Amino acid sequence: MREIYQKIPELIQTDQVGAYCTVVETKGSTPQKPGSKLLILPDLRNIGTLGGGCVEAEARRQAIGLMQGGVPRLLEFQLDSDYGWDDGLICGGNMKIFIDLPKTQVEADMFTRIQELSREKVPLMSATVVESTQPDVRVGMKMVFAMNGQRIGTLGDLKLEAEIETKISDILEQNRSGLYKKDRTVSIFLEPIQPRPTLLIAGAGHVGQALCHIGSWLDFDIAIVDDRADFASKSRLPEADEIIIGDIAEELRQYPINHLTYIVIVTRGHQHDESALHSVVESDAGYIGLIGSRRKIKLIFDDLLDVGIPIEKLQRVYAPIGLDINSKTVPEIAVSIASQLIQVRNGAKMSKPFEAQPARMPSIKLTGEENGQD
Questions:
Q1: What is the pLDDT of residues 230-281, one digit of tens each?
Q2: Residue boundaries of the structural domains of the chain
Q3: Which residue among 55, 110, 142, 143 sits deepest, i.e. has the most Cβ atoms within 10 Å of its Cβ?
Q4: Taking a C-beta distance cutoff of 8 angstroms, is the pair 304, 314 a contact?
Q5: Element (H or E) spanning 70, and its range?
Q6: What's the CATH fold of domain 198-364?
Q7: Are 19 and 101 in contact (CB under 8 A)?
Q8: pLDDT under 50 in the chain at which residues?
């Protein structure tokens, strides 16, 4: 999504037209869900996907035609024998895809401002008119509503804009895109644009390096901290947005952690892991994960309980870190960690990291057998 938002202003500034395609509604079984995007560039290369197969091919064909002087259009597909999967399987669902043709400076400024607010970690909701029979509310009109009160663009009707504004909290809380239909005269696609979470990696060793690469690909801003300059270097960590060299525990204490911060502790040893966890365990981080075996984690938790860390805080920690995929190699361990980060970020149902026992230690619900150093 970030690449698409960056590219649209570039096209407009150079007087080029791209087709900005978005899935705005689905029913039943479909290859993609609302919010999936595809940008077709003037040279007909793609950024993003609508799910592939016949639907994407047909949407792409019609979008390319509209790039030659057409107007925005809403397409509807019934996924029957005409629009099945590439392998011949039938989805049986229904998809609506909106083809937009952003070309004005106002739209360029809007997409630029979306990027700026996202970097500032401001939650946003975008609203795009995809159907309308009202003369002042035209198909393709857009407006962005920010949680900090900023408003960008117009929907052509002040009363409608005020009505849409009341939806922002629900849309962001549910983190789900969908169509808002007004009196059968207007359909507006509402989409949350959540700030990119920060993946804060404590430890620039082999696992930290692999996770830096994968995390960037998964749309995290990457911050990585280590006390070894030869490990925490741009040459080893080219995808990192921020490289911090210094005492790991101290740097973590000073880092601005909030609910959008996902912390992964994968340092080079037991003592560093323990001090790192001590620095962040009482923070507001959205996720804290600790690498290690059963024995190591029990020792660390005992030590932190002894210095007064409440058991409720330790119960938030995912340890051993990652989903249980029987990972053995460094890339496999990084994949297991990344999978758990996606699970937490997307709000998937899962068991809690720990369940407290009458004893002083919480029972550990393993996510991987002996995942990490002892």
A1: 999 999 999 999 999 999 999 999 999 999 999 999 999 889 999 999 999 9
A2: 2-100, 105-193, 198-364
A3: 55
A4: yes
A5: none
A6: Rossmann fold (3.40.50)
A7: yes
A8: 85-90, 351-352, 354-374
